[in-house]
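Quick one:
INPUT:
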């Protein structure tokens, strides 16, 4: 059983589940529908892009000031919580640099042989 509600923004009558909860316990829903809220959110974000970025930056700076080890600890926690993704990342790194390593060793050994021609051939 679903009730219908008229959105105060688009004035379209919609199923109640298309309105997100404002208070789930009291069964109170927002006056505007989810679509209108998403649009409002998007418009707000676009209008306040700099403000939001600034806020985020300030938050990070503050967080860092309070706890300079925060970043390191967050990284450590990530590693602990995501051993699989850390392992995969390191494999990816190895794969990406394998070619480079091989080239380096080829160049190096060629150079080595050139430099120590007498000894190598002896
Ligand atoms: Zn609406």
């Amino acid at each position: 059983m679903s009730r219908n509600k008229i959105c105060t923004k688009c004035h379209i009558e919609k199923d109640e589940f298309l309105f997100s909860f404002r208070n789930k316990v009291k069964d109170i829903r927002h006056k505007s529908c989810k679509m209108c809220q998403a649009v409002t959110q998007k418009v707000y974000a676009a209008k306040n892009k700099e403000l939001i970025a600034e806020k985020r930056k300030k938050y990070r700076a503050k967080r860092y000031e309070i706890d300079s080890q925060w970043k390191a600890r967050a990284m450590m926690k990530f590693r602990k919580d995501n051993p699989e993704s850390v392992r995969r990342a390191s494999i990816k790194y190895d794969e990406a640099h394998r070619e480079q390593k091989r080239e380096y060793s080829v160049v190096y050994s060629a150079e080595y042989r050139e430099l120590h021609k007498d000894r190598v051939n002896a």
